Write the structure tokens for this entry.
Amino acid sequence: MPIYLFWGEDEFALNRAVQALRDRTLDPAWVSFNYDKLSSEQPDAVVQALNLALTPPFGAGNRMVWLADTLLFQRCSDEILRELDRSLPHLPDSSVLLLTHSHKPDGRLKSTKLLQKYGEIQEFSPIPPWKTDLLVQQVRRAAQEVGVKLTDDAIQLLADSVGNNSRQLYNELEKLLLYGFTDDRPLNAAAVRTLVTASTQTSLQLAATIRQGDTAESLGLIADLLNHNEPPLRIVATLVGQFRTWLWVKVMVDAKERDEKEIARAAEVANPKRIYFLRQEVAALPLAGLEQSLSLLLDLEFGLKSGKEPIALLQTKVIELCQLFQKAKS
């Protein structure tokens, strides 16, 4: 009785997983008989989905029932909970019940605990842009899935270019697959640079220019990010993550900590080898400046969430941040 909950805001990655599950569950000749997708807006959608999942498939293959955008794991009535408790343990092995939603399930609800007992939960959330190690791993996995051979420098460049945009990642990999179709050799960074459209500027680049106190370049990056429809709160989230990492590395370095693994643990950096480069990045930065930068970023986040005009607020706070690090250099 395979039961799945797919959740997360990365709609493209989630839908790819749904399609993969559909392909391996259903016989193509019997799809119209054995595949049902229900919207949570339909009356009695949960009961209908459970009844369909309890029905044996017609012909070859298995049955798949998809209940999309369900709120079962954000709120659940006693009546529906009883239906779940009655049905989930008895779903036949020939049926797959899939439930999807963009938000994380509430672990306190009995419906979530029931699903954890009988099913499997998979998360499809965008990787935070500052977790560069995870972005590289995502590119490596996706390249293997698509069948594109890439050198290590090409993988790094592709991760830098597309960030956490999984839709663009697969689009670019399909393009690279066609380019390297006649050649078994791995594609290098030069090929990626020629063919891949970078997103183009990333919030991590913005963090680096702020750290260097380059006001003009930082304002240009803000304009580029907004022109590419990057949400202001996502820009701020990336900046907070990066400056928080720099702050922790600086704190540990100033405390004379030499163990890179210990510094990585404190800064929540997955790959301790990155600490060597992070130490170089924070070497000339004052601890007080990094602490103050997080205070300014908190003010920026509060202003955006309070409904202030985002462009002017972003520009103002970025100028203040750059001036903060210009003073540190002088």
